[in-house]
Structures are given as structure tokens and as C-alpha cells.
Amino acid sequence: MTNISLADPSGRPIRVGLDVGGTKIDAVAVDASGRIIGRLRRPTGWGDDAVVESIVLAVAALADENSFAISEVGSVGVGIPGLVDAGAGRVDHAVNLGVESLDLAARSEEVLGVQFRVENDVKAAALGAAALNGVAGSMAYLNLGTGVAAGIVIDGQIWRGSRGTAGEVGHLSVDPRGRLCGCGQHGCIETFCGGGALTKAWGRPGALPIKDLFDAADAGDPLALSLRNDLYHGAAAAVRALVLSADVETVVIGGGLTALGERLENGVRAALRAGAEASPFMRSLRLDERIELLPAGSPAAAFGAALVGASITEKEIVSHG
Amino acid sequence: MTNISLADPSGRPIRVGLDVGGTKIDAVAVDASGRIIGRLRRPTGWGDDAVVESIVLAVAALADENSFAISEVGSVGVGIPGLVDAGAGRVDHAVNLGVESLDLAARSEEVLGVQFRVENDVKAAALGAAALNGVAGSMAYLNLGTGVAAGIVIDGQIWRGSRGTAGEVGHLSVDPRGRLCGCGQHGCIETFCGGGALTKAWGRPGALPIKDLFDAADAGDPLALSLRNDLYHGAAAAVRALVLSADVETVVIGGGLTALGERLENGVRAALRAGAEASPFMRSLRLDERIELLPAGSPAAAFGAALVGASITEKEIVSHG
Fold it and tell me: Which ipTM was obtained for this model?
């Protein structure tokens, strides 16, 4: 399933993985064979102290609910949005969590006495998606959530690139006359298929604005039809950018918008086919056959975080005492 | 300079590299220390037999002019446009050479009795540019010629991706209302900064249409100004696509359009700066500082082909007898 060993040289059999989102933490406990033996969701705190506390409480609750001791936990991996320095275990600019700069690993380790490892949430999810979907070779994980970003996994390893911007296709502009992006450019892929940008462009209140938008499109609403088309078009552009630059074999789509299920999958496939219709070169790439959708509620992100934690080397464990 | 050894286990000290273009072959001879000891250009033939003949004659002329014997040549590497099967030494769909499918390595080896290795011309040039420019880590070589394509080199190795489309950013669309591309899509990066597309859009006869276009832009011609701006804009889009997906550290620009020299370099830098002006995220990437231009007439492509040839392993040499 994965080429990252979950065996722990310190003899602690449980790996914990946390996907820390803007509103909730998704936590899984994984045994040495790679099986998920427990899972729970808890709210995320706001600001440095509350984020650390909610992470610590999530690990404790997971242990309690699944009858294992913290002393049996070999590592905790945390996937978190923002700019992550994996080596230092620090996260910067996690604006959705009210965090400017936080020594997350050190502070959490201090409380729980367990090794922590921190990774960008999309990169961790990419690793988890590759493992859960059994993707060998090269894969991009395209996260369609509030924002849009991708992580690239090659032969079971996160592809880091030179400065950590690998897979940042959300901020490639594909239309100079497109909507203004939060990043300051116009027509970024994220303005077409990011949940935040679409919600803003839709502009009608509702608990599930993108679902409302899809329902309105089904009912023939012109704005909804246009925005739904933008979503398909933007996701297809992201897939093309990932294949025509990094040349990944497969693109796995995840993130909050996968709650749309088949409506999303079929729409993106159709957009890829339509975009290739006039181009023998693009047709030859068969992109519509190279995408997969994660099931809504997939534990890929938290599972990937557990894999990140499990990748702590023996040397690091020794050097940390 | 490069981590590919030029030492030859068979004891033949000379490596030859050929960059086979639509009109001419650029050939270099390289000694075991990686120094270019000879270089010449010859016309390329049209069609299978003539292409093989022009390649064989280029090697023979290079030996003759530089006073070495064919028996001293350890390998010949050939960079050639088209779909290359490097393992089989075959090239398909080299339309500019009148070649549909040619067993180039086998046919050339038969005549000269020297090991041949074949590689896509842009990938070979990428390897040569990385070596000649002393780029360690990750680099993309963006070829601005008649068409537009990039090759990616990571730690001195050509990055192949899963299906050979790594770096094919020329056919990413960045404007849905853009010009029709030869590939069938609209607004491809190649329609903005490919020499062929610009020459067609310029539409005025001349031996050096892009130079004419630049001179006309300097003189205030509105169409020329608009097309020159397209060139800068397209090249900047290609740089962004390479960094925001594969996250290469450096983009080296080569190809025929580098004859424009500083006018090209300054324009692309300015377009990168202008594109980042409104975006703190893009500004933080400092893309304008991460591009380099190959000097016009650089032997990078032929030198890279020599490196490709030199990468023939001892095992292959034995298995080929």
C-alpha cells in the first residue's frame, strides 16, 4: 500500500495522524500494519495556544476512545495549512487558524512526550491519497477546497521542489480578463474552481453554497450554470497544468468540493474531453481517464499525516532523546 | 561542471554530440575532461535516408576537421525533435525533418561502428544548459524557437515524468480568447511566444521576421508592439507554470529567439515583475531573478547531446558488443 514503513524502532506500535483544518481536526490512529484503528473529529482552536491545545486534546481523545495509551504512540504527524518548515516543526502564516508563527512540534512534544512531525496539509494529503488509492509512480493530489493547491507524490515520496511551491497551480492565471484572485492576480485557476471564490461570485447566503449553486444550475439558473462551468473548466486547467509540466501519471482530486461526488467528477471529465476535442495532442494524453476522485469524507489527509509522522528516522528519534 | 562522467570504459576518448534541427546540424566533439575540442554546422537532410546520411557526414567531418579518428569516438549522442524512444534509439513524428519513424541509432551505428544514443532535442539541450551554466539542483530549460517546450533537469538528470510530457508548457492555454494554436487549442503559451506563431501573426515577409518585429516595435508600430508584448507575456507565463508546478529553482531560456539577446531578457524580466506587482505571493517568488538567458549560438544543445551519448552504461556497451 505504501513504501513508508510504519514499524517503529522505539517499539511504540500506534501512529497518529491529524489533519488540522480551519474549523475541525480529523484524527486517525494507525497500527503497524497500516490499518486505521480509530478516527474522530474535533473542533480546531483559534490562535497559537488554542491550536496546540486542540491538537493535544485530539490525540488524547483518540487514545481514550480507542483504548490505547499515549505511551504506545510512536509518532504524531500533523498536516496543517500554511507555510511549514518540516525540519523545524514550525508553521508560519496559517491565517485560517490565527497563527502567525508557531513552533508546533516542540510545543506539542513538550505536553505529550511523543515525537511530532509537521507537514503542509495538502502535501500530507497527497501522501495519504497515494497510499489509500494504491497509486504507484507519479501522482498529483489536487485539493479543491476553499482554495486550490496540489501536492505531488513520486514513488511514495512527497515531491518538494526547490522552494516548496511544487503543485501551487491554483495561482496560475488562465484568463487575463478573469476574476480578481485573493492573491492579487486575475484569472487564477483558484478563481475558477476554489470554493471561496465561487461562493463569493455566487453571492447568495446558504450553509452549503456550492451545493446550492449546483442545484440552481440543475434548475437552469444562468449565473449558477456559468459558475458550475467555471468550476469544471478550472479543475480541468489544473489537471492539464500538472500533467504538461510535472507529467504526473494520475491526478487524484480531493478536498471539500468532493462532497459534490459524481456531479464534480463527471463535469471535470467532460471538461477535459471538451478541451481536447480540437487537439490531437491533447486527445493523445487521455487526461479524462487519468483523474480519480477521493470519496467525500476520505481519511486520506489524516492518514497521510500519520505517514509523515512515521517517516521520522531512527536518527532523529535518537537525536531528540 | 556535470555529474555525468565522460570517461569511457572502452577507452575511446572522444564524445560527439549532435543537435539536429530542421535546417542544420550543430555538432561538437568533447574530450574526456568535458572540454569542447571541435564544433561545426552542416545542413540537415530531408527524409529518413538523408537524415541518417547528414548525421554520419557531420560526425565524419568533425573527425576530419579536428584530426581524430572515428575509432577514437566513444559515443555519439543525437538530440532530435520529435517523439524519441531513447531505449530503442528511434525517433517518430519528426515532421520538420520529413521523418515518420526512423531507427536512427541502429542505422547510424551500422555505418560508423560507434555507439549512438538518441534523445529529444529539448531534453538534451536542457542537460547541456544545466552543465554549461553550472546549475545544480533543479532547472528548467525553456526553449523559445519555432515552437515552445521545456526540459527539466534535476541533480544533473533529465526529468522524464510518466509519459514524456514533462515541460510541455507550450500547450497550456493561458487565454481562452487567444489565437488558435497549431495544436488545436486557443491561447496556448506557444501562440504568445513561439517564433512560428509570432511570424504568422506578424505576416510580413523577411528573413528574420522576429527581429523585424522587434525593430518595428522600437519604431512604434502598434501590431509589433502588441506582438512583442505577447512574446514577453507568454515567456513569463511559461516561467510561472514551470515554477508553480514543478518548482524548479532556475529557468534557463534558450532557442532561436535568444538571438534577440538583452531585448528578450529584459522584456521577460519586466513581464515577470509586472505580473507579480499586485501579488505579494508572486513577488515573494522573485521569478525575475531566477531566469537566465543562454548566449545566442550557445553549444548547449549539442553539448547536452554529447552528455546523453556519454551516459551509455558499460552494461549497454557490452550488450551491444
Answer: 0.89
